[in-house]
Amino acid sequence: MKALVLAGGSGTRLRPITHTSAKQLVPVANKPVLFYGLEAIAETGITEVGLVVGDTHAEIEAAVGDGSAFGLQVTYLRQEAPLGLAHGVLIAREFLGEEDFVMYLGDNFIVGGISGLVDGFAARRPAAQILLTKVGDPRQFGVAELDAQGRVVGLEEKPERPKSDLALVGVYLFSAAVHEAVAELKPSWRGELEITDAIQWLIEAGLDVEASVITGYWKDTGNVTDMLEVNRLVLESLEPRVDGLVDPASELVGRVVVEAGAVVERSRLVGPVIIGAGTRIRDSYVGPFTSVGADCAVTGSELDYSIVLPGTSIAGVGRIESSLIGHHVEVTASVTTPKAHRLVLGDHSKVQIGT
After folding, report:
1. Residue 13: helix, strand or coil by DSSP?
2. What is the reported pTM?
3. Are β-strands 166-174 and 101-105 bridged in parallel, bridged antiparallel, or unpaired?
4. Cβ atoms within 10 Å of 330's Cβ, excluding its own
5. Does the pLDDT of residue 19 top 50, yes or no?
Protein backbone atom coordinates (compact mmCIF):
# COMPACT_ATOMS: atom_id res chain seq x y z
CA MET A 1 0.00 0.00 0.00
CA LYS A 2 1.09 3.56 -0.73
CA ALA A 3 0.05 6.91 0.72
CA LEU A 4 -1.04 10.11 -0.97
CA VAL A 5 -0.77 13.25 1.15
CA LEU A 6 -2.45 16.40 -0.12
CA ALA A 7 -0.62 19.63 0.76
CA GLY A 8 -1.45 21.87 -2.17
CA GLY A 9 -4.24 24.00 -0.67
CA SER A 10 -3.92 27.76 -0.35
CA GLY A 11 -5.16 28.08 3.25
CA THR A 12 -7.54 31.00 2.75
CA ARG A 13 -9.11 30.55 6.21
CA LEU A 14 -5.73 31.05 7.91
CA ARG A 15 -4.85 34.30 6.20
CA PRO A 16 -2.78 36.40 6.69
CA ILE A 17 -0.51 33.67 8.12
CA THR A 18 -0.80 31.68 4.88
CA HIS A 19 0.02 34.62 2.63
CA THR A 20 3.64 33.83 3.42
CA SER A 21 3.57 30.29 4.82
CA ALA A 22 2.07 26.91 3.88
CA LYS A 23 -0.95 26.11 6.06
CA GLN A 24 0.31 22.54 6.49
CA LEU A 25 3.46 23.89 8.17
CA VAL A 26 1.71 26.02 10.80
CA PRO A 27 2.98 24.45 14.04
CA VAL A 28 1.04 22.54 16.66
CA ALA A 29 3.08 22.34 19.88
CA ASN A 30 6.02 23.70 17.83
CA LYS A 31 5.80 20.94 15.19
CA PRO A 32 4.19 21.44 11.75
CA VAL A 33 0.74 19.86 11.55
CA LEU A 34 1.84 18.05 8.36
CA PHE A 35 4.48 16.16 10.33
CA TYR A 36 1.84 14.52 12.54
CA GLY A 37 0.20 13.07 9.44
CA LEU A 38 3.49 11.79 8.03
CA GLU A 39 4.30 10.17 11.37
CA ALA A 40 0.87 8.49 11.45
CA ILE A 41 1.48 7.09 7.96
CA ALA A 42 4.94 5.79 8.92
CA GLU A 43 3.41 4.01 11.93
CA THR A 44 1.25 1.91 9.59
CA GLY A 45 4.33 0.46 7.88
CA ILE A 46 3.69 2.32 4.62
CA THR A 47 6.94 3.70 3.23
CA GLU A 48 6.12 5.18 -0.20
CA VAL A 49 4.38 8.56 -0.04
CA GLY A 50 3.28 10.87 -2.83
CA LEU A 51 3.10 14.43 -1.54
CA VAL A 52 0.90 16.71 -3.66
CA VAL A 53 2.17 20.30 -3.46
CA GLY A 54 1.20 23.62 -5.03
CA ASP A 55 2.44 27.19 -4.79
CA THR A 56 4.13 26.55 -1.44
CA HIS A 57 6.09 23.56 -2.77
CA ALA A 58 9.53 25.02 -2.02
CA GLU A 59 8.72 25.57 1.66
CA ILE A 60 7.18 22.12 2.08
CA GLU A 61 10.01 20.38 0.24
CA ALA A 62 12.56 22.19 2.44
CA ALA A 63 10.73 21.06 5.60
CA VAL A 64 10.04 17.42 4.63
CA GLY A 65 13.05 16.68 2.44
CA ASP A 66 13.21 13.17 1.04
CA GLY A 67 11.10 11.84 3.92
CA SER A 68 13.91 9.84 5.50
CA ALA A 69 13.50 11.71 8.80
CA PHE A 70 10.08 10.03 9.07
CA GLY A 71 11.20 6.65 7.71
CA LEU A 72 9.47 7.42 4.40
CA GLN A 73 10.34 7.78 0.72
CA VAL A 74 8.63 10.93 -0.50
CA THR A 75 7.86 11.70 -4.14
CA TYR A 76 6.67 15.26 -4.83
CA LEU A 77 3.74 15.73 -7.22
CA ARG A 78 3.11 19.28 -8.44
CA GLN A 79 -0.47 20.53 -8.71
CA GLU A 80 -0.77 23.67 -10.82
CA ALA A 81 -3.77 24.89 -8.81
CA PRO A 82 -5.94 23.59 -5.93
CA LEU A 83 -8.49 21.96 -8.24
CA GLY A 84 -9.99 19.51 -5.75
CA LEU A 85 -9.09 16.38 -3.81
CA ALA A 86 -9.95 14.11 -6.73
CA HIS A 87 -7.61 16.18 -8.92
CA GLY A 88 -4.86 15.23 -6.49
CA VAL A 89 -5.65 11.57 -7.17
CA LEU A 90 -5.72 12.26 -10.90
CA ILE A 91 -2.22 13.73 -11.04
CA ALA A 92 -0.89 10.92 -8.82
CA ARG A 93 -2.07 8.17 -11.19
CA GLU A 94 1.40 7.16 -12.38
CA PHE A 95 2.85 7.22 -8.86
CA LEU A 96 0.02 5.12 -7.38
CA GLY A 97 -0.10 2.51 -10.14
CA GLU A 98 -2.50 -0.32 -9.32
CA GLU A 99 -1.83 -0.36 -5.59
CA ASP A 100 -4.26 0.34 -2.76
CA PHE A 101 -3.55 3.66 -1.06
CA VAL A 102 -4.47 5.84 1.87
CA MET A 103 -5.18 9.49 1.11
CA TYR A 104 -4.43 11.89 3.96
CA LEU A 105 -5.21 15.60 3.98
CA GLY A 106 -2.07 17.38 5.15
CA ASP A 107 -3.87 19.90 7.39
CA ASN A 108 -5.94 17.32 9.27
CA PHE A 109 -5.22 16.01 12.73
CA ILE A 110 -6.44 12.65 14.06
CA VAL A 111 -5.67 11.37 17.54
CA GLY A 112 -4.69 7.73 17.80
CA GLY A 113 -3.23 7.27 14.34
CA ILE A 114 -4.61 5.28 11.40
CA SER A 115 -2.89 1.89 11.74
CA GLY A 116 -6.09 0.08 12.71
CA LEU A 117 -7.95 1.64 9.79
CA VAL A 118 -5.25 0.61 7.30
CA ASP A 119 -5.07 -2.94 8.66
CA GLY A 120 -8.85 -3.33 8.46
CA PHE A 121 -8.95 -2.09 4.88
CA ALA A 122 -6.16 -4.45 3.84
CA ALA A 123 -8.06 -7.38 5.35
CA ARG A 124 -11.47 -6.61 3.80
CA ARG A 125 -10.41 -4.91 0.52
CA PRO A 126 -13.49 -2.78 -0.27
CA ALA A 127 -13.29 -0.37 -3.20
CA ALA A 128 -13.16 2.49 -0.73
CA GLN A 129 -13.41 3.20 2.97
CA ILE A 130 -14.29 6.56 4.47
CA LEU A 131 -14.23 7.95 8.00
CA LEU A 132 -17.16 9.94 9.32
CA THR A 133 -17.71 12.04 12.40
CA LYS A 134 -20.66 14.06 13.69
CA VAL A 135 -20.23 17.83 13.34
CA GLY A 136 -22.28 20.84 14.38
CA ASP A 137 -22.34 22.51 10.95
CA PRO A 138 -22.04 19.92 8.16
CA ARG A 139 -22.31 22.60 5.46
CA GLN A 140 -18.57 23.15 5.76
CA PHE A 141 -17.67 19.55 4.88
CA GLY A 142 -18.30 16.64 2.61
CA VAL A 143 -21.41 14.94 4.03
CA ALA A 144 -22.45 11.27 3.92
CA GLU A 145 -25.94 9.82 3.98
CA LEU A 146 -26.30 6.31 5.45
CA ASP A 147 -29.21 3.88 5.19
CA ALA A 148 -30.76 2.03 8.13
CA GLN A 149 -28.05 -0.64 7.92
CA GLY A 150 -25.26 1.96 8.08
CA ARG A 151 -24.30 1.64 4.39
CA VAL A 152 -23.26 4.69 2.42
CA VAL A 153 -26.00 5.66 -0.03
CA GLY A 154 -25.01 9.20 -0.93
CA LEU A 155 -22.30 11.85 -0.61
CA GLU A 156 -22.35 15.58 -1.19
CA GLU A 157 -19.65 18.25 -0.92
CA LYS A 158 -20.45 21.27 1.28
CA PRO A 159 -24.23 21.01 0.78
CA GLU A 160 -26.49 23.96 1.51
CA ARG A 161 -29.07 21.55 3.00
CA PRO A 162 -27.18 18.58 4.49
CA LYS A 163 -28.98 15.25 4.67
CA SER A 164 -27.06 14.24 7.80
CA ASP A 165 -24.60 15.58 10.36
CA LEU A 166 -21.92 13.06 9.34
CA ALA A 167 -18.88 14.78 7.84
CA LEU A 168 -16.05 13.07 6.01
CA VAL A 169 -12.81 13.06 7.98
CA GLY A 170 -9.69 13.84 5.97
CA VAL A 171 -8.47 10.24 5.64
CA TYR A 172 -9.67 7.93 2.85
CA LEU A 173 -8.64 4.45 1.70
CA PHE A 174 -8.99 3.39 -1.91
CA SER A 175 -8.38 0.48 -4.21
CA ALA A 176 -7.25 1.15 -7.79
CA ALA A 177 -10.95 1.23 -8.77
CA VAL A 178 -11.05 4.90 -7.79
CA HIS A 179 -8.91 5.85 -10.80
CA GLU A 180 -11.71 4.96 -13.20
CA ALA A 181 -14.11 7.02 -11.12
CA VAL A 182 -11.80 10.05 -11.07
CA ALA A 183 -11.27 9.86 -14.83
CA GLU A 184 -15.03 10.22 -15.35
CA LEU A 185 -15.50 13.31 -13.20
CA LYS A 186 -16.45 16.79 -14.34
CA PRO A 187 -15.75 19.90 -12.22
CA SER A 188 -18.40 20.69 -9.61
CA TRP A 189 -20.10 24.06 -9.11
CA ARG A 190 -16.98 25.02 -7.15
CA GLY A 191 -14.81 24.36 -10.21
CA GLU A 192 -13.14 21.39 -8.52
CA LEU A 193 -12.97 17.64 -9.00
CA GLU A 194 -14.67 16.43 -5.83
CA ILE A 195 -13.58 13.25 -4.08
CA THR A 196 -17.18 12.90 -2.86
CA ASP A 197 -18.29 12.63 -6.50
CA ALA A 198 -15.69 9.93 -7.12
CA ILE A 199 -16.91 7.91 -4.13
CA GLN A 200 -20.51 8.41 -5.28
CA TRP A 201 -19.48 7.01 -8.68
CA LEU A 202 -18.14 3.89 -6.95
CA ILE A 203 -21.41 3.47 -5.05
CA GLU A 204 -23.51 3.82 -8.21
CA ALA A 205 -21.24 1.34 -9.99
CA GLY A 206 -22.22 -1.24 -7.35
CA LEU A 207 -18.80 -1.36 -5.70
CA ASP A 208 -18.34 -1.77 -1.97
CA VAL A 209 -17.84 1.50 -0.07
CA GLU A 210 -17.48 1.12 3.68
CA ALA A 211 -17.88 3.83 6.31
CA SER A 212 -16.71 4.01 9.90
CA VAL A 213 -18.10 6.59 12.32
CA ILE A 214 -15.31 7.65 14.64
CA THR A 215 -15.80 9.02 18.13
CA GLY A 216 -12.17 9.98 18.70
CA TYR A 217 -10.66 13.38 18.16
CA TRP A 218 -10.41 14.84 14.67
CA LYS A 219 -9.85 18.39 13.48
CA ASP A 220 -9.46 20.12 10.16
CA THR A 221 -6.91 22.76 11.21
CA GLY A 222 -8.02 25.18 8.51
CA ASN A 223 -8.90 28.08 10.83
CA VAL A 224 -7.43 29.79 13.88
CA THR A 225 -9.99 28.42 16.36
CA ASP A 226 -9.28 24.83 15.36
CA MET A 227 -5.51 25.41 15.33
CA LEU A 228 -5.63 26.63 18.93
CA GLU A 229 -7.84 23.70 19.95
CA VAL A 230 -5.48 21.14 18.41
CA ASN A 231 -2.54 22.90 20.03
CA ARG A 232 -4.33 22.58 23.38
CA LEU A 233 -4.95 18.88 22.85
CA VAL A 234 -1.33 18.08 21.93
CA LEU A 235 0.09 20.17 24.77
CA GLU A 236 -2.02 18.19 27.25
CA SER A 237 0.19 15.16 26.60
CA LEU A 238 3.48 17.01 27.20
CA GLU A 239 6.09 15.47 29.45
CA PRO A 240 7.85 18.26 31.40
CA ARG A 241 11.44 18.84 30.37
CA VAL A 242 13.98 21.62 30.86
CA ASP A 243 16.89 21.59 28.44
CA GLY A 244 17.40 25.35 28.49
CA LEU A 245 18.18 27.74 31.34
CA VAL A 246 15.68 28.78 34.01
CA ASP A 247 16.88 31.25 36.65
CA PRO A 248 16.03 30.90 40.38
CA ALA A 249 13.64 33.86 40.19
CA SER A 250 11.39 32.00 37.76
CA GLU A 251 8.63 29.48 38.51
CA LEU A 252 7.55 26.55 36.35
CA VAL A 253 4.19 24.99 37.21
CA GLY A 254 2.92 21.75 35.69
CA ARG A 255 3.86 20.36 32.27
CA VAL A 256 6.39 22.83 30.90
CA VAL A 257 9.00 22.17 28.20
CA VAL A 258 11.93 24.56 27.82
CA GLU A 259 13.94 23.58 24.75
CA ALA A 260 17.73 23.72 24.49
CA GLY A 261 19.09 27.23 24.18
CA ALA A 262 15.95 28.85 25.61
CA VAL A 263 16.30 31.18 28.60
CA VAL A 264 13.63 31.97 31.20
CA GLU A 265 14.28 34.87 33.57
CA ARG A 266 12.08 36.31 36.33
CA SER A 267 9.02 34.72 34.77
CA ARG A 268 6.17 32.35 35.62
CA LEU A 269 5.22 29.55 33.23
CA VAL A 270 2.05 27.55 33.95
CA GLY A 271 1.74 24.46 31.79
CA PRO A 272 1.07 22.87 29.56
CA VAL A 273 3.49 25.18 27.76
CA ILE A 274 6.36 24.69 25.32
CA ILE A 275 9.13 27.25 24.81
CA GLY A 276 11.16 26.81 21.61
CA ALA A 277 14.92 26.63 21.24
CA GLY A 278 16.75 29.93 21.49
CA THR A 279 13.71 31.82 22.86
CA ARG A 280 14.03 34.29 25.76
CA ILE A 281 11.22 34.82 28.26
CA ARG A 282 11.86 37.73 30.63
CA ASP A 283 9.67 39.33 33.29
CA SER A 284 6.63 37.63 31.78
CA TYR A 285 3.83 35.17 32.38
CA VAL A 286 3.11 32.34 29.92
CA GLY A 287 -0.13 30.54 30.70
CA PRO A 288 -1.65 27.17 29.83
CA PHE A 289 -1.95 25.83 26.28
CA THR A 290 0.62 28.19 24.79
CA SER A 291 3.42 27.28 22.40
CA VAL A 292 6.18 29.77 21.69
CA GLY A 293 8.37 28.94 18.70
CA ALA A 294 12.12 29.09 18.33
CA ASP A 295 14.16 32.30 18.56
CA CYS A 296 11.37 34.44 20.00
CA ALA A 297 11.57 37.11 22.70
CA VAL A 298 8.80 37.74 25.21
CA THR A 299 9.46 40.59 27.65
CA GLY A 300 7.17 42.20 30.21
CA SER A 301 4.07 40.55 28.76
CA GLU A 302 1.47 37.85 29.39
CA LEU A 303 0.55 35.04 26.98
CA ASP A 304 -2.27 32.57 27.34
CA TYR A 305 -3.85 29.93 25.03
CA SER A 306 -1.86 31.09 22.02
CA ILE A 307 0.54 30.00 19.28
CA VAL A 308 3.57 32.17 18.54
CA LEU A 309 5.61 31.29 15.47
CA PRO A 310 9.42 31.53 15.32
CA GLY A 311 11.35 34.78 15.32
CA THR A 312 8.63 36.91 16.94
CA SER A 313 9.20 39.62 19.55
CA ILE A 314 6.54 40.62 22.11
CA ALA A 315 7.40 43.39 24.57
CA GLY A 316 5.45 45.30 27.19
CA VAL A 317 1.97 44.70 25.84
CA GLY A 318 0.10 43.33 28.84
CA ARG A 319 -2.03 40.25 28.16
CA ILE A 320 -2.44 38.39 24.87
CA GLU A 321 -4.78 35.41 24.65
CA SER A 322 -6.42 33.11 22.07
CA SER A 323 -4.06 34.37 19.39
CA LEU A 324 -2.07 33.00 16.46
CA ILE A 325 0.95 35.22 15.82
CA GLY A 326 3.06 34.68 12.71
CA HIS A 327 6.78 34.52 11.94
CA HIS A 328 9.04 37.49 12.75
CA VAL A 329 6.23 39.66 14.11
CA GLU A 330 6.97 42.62 16.40
CA VAL A 331 4.36 43.40 19.04
CA THR A 332 5.23 46.40 21.19
CA ALA A 333 3.54 48.86 23.53
CA SER A 334 2.69 52.35 22.36
CA VAL A 335 4.25 55.11 24.47
CA THR A 336 2.57 57.98 22.66
CA THR A 337 -0.05 60.33 24.10
CA PRO A 338 -2.96 60.40 23.55
CA LYS A 339 -3.37 56.67 23.84
CA ALA A 340 -3.82 55.15 20.40
CA HIS A 341 -3.45 51.88 18.50
CA ARG A 342 -0.96 51.85 15.64
CA LEU A 343 -1.51 48.95 13.25
CA VAL A 344 0.13 47.56 10.13
CA LEU A 345 -2.13 44.69 9.02
CA GLY A 346 -2.10 42.41 6.00
CA ASP A 347 -5.10 41.49 3.88
CA HIS A 348 -7.84 39.49 5.62
CA SER A 349 -6.41 40.22 9.10
CA LYS A 350 -8.69 40.05 12.13
CA VAL A 351 -8.05 42.28 15.16
CA GLN A 352 -9.98 42.59 18.43
CA ILE A 353 -9.18 45.73 20.45
CA GLY A 354 -10.46 46.33 23.95
CA THR A 355 -12.14 49.68 24.53
Report:
1. helix
2. 0.84
3. antiparallel
4. 11
5. no
